[in-house]
Amino acid sequence: MEAVSHELLSRERDLIAHLRAMGSVLVGYSGGVDSTYLASVALEALGPGSTLAVLGKSPSVAHVQWRTAIDVANSAGIPLLVVDTHEVDDPRYAANPSNRCYFCKSELWTTLVPLARERGLAAVVDGTNADDRGDFRPGAAAAMERAVSSPLAELRFTKEEIRALSRRRGLPTWSQPSSPCLASRIPYGTEVTPERLRQVDTAEQALRALGITGDLRVRFHGELARVELVGAELERWLSPERHEVLRQAVADAGFSRVALDLRGFRSGSLNVLEGVVAA
Fold first, then answer.
1. Could you read off the pLDDT of 179-194 as tens digits, one per residue?
2. Is the pTM of this model over 0.70?
3. Burial label, 52 (beta-carbon count in 10 A; 0-12, 13-18, 19+)
């Protein structure tokens, strides 16, 4: 295990004190690197009676993602509640504008903030980190409107630091790839439907079943699925034999055409089509 600096451990103690001062918290939990770390620290700071992680379950969350999130919380002893969210039923979300995440997070926090009040929990927190504040994140406005705080960002924890501290804590999420919601695979302006979300989810699960690791996306472009893999995996699946196996796995999810993007995985590339090589 890599050593963590004394300075970073000192900042983690500051985070514990920060959470302890809140008295009790509801953590908006996804099972990702950041929210898992935050829930773990909150549990240490406040104990199980004053900490609750809440996972929103909806068609926009990959099946394997929320199942893994439940397993991680259980293994870490984090008190967990799973609630249904209904952002896909909101026509503003389904229309898939560039600020789609605002409507998603509005649905989430509109559900979780009253829940915290009902449970007598003093604060609602999320796993936004310092790096996130440099990105386009319309969902952050929804959190701000509902007084949801972001302790990791406020205390300037970066993703790299959170991974290092998660590893030190023995959290299995420390090396987990980023996994935004399934709607992020659908280009802005293309309607988000439960059927399209399931199609993307099924295709990505099929590729994982082939043993593909690391960051992976199946981008939805109507009848065409554009597959993005990280560099090493991309090289591995370029041979004609493997390429056909990959194509068939994605086609079985309901896509009539499958393209392997030769530029590999790129975060936020959902609106890019040029440079794609069709299988």
1. 889 999 999 999 999 9
2. yes
3. buried
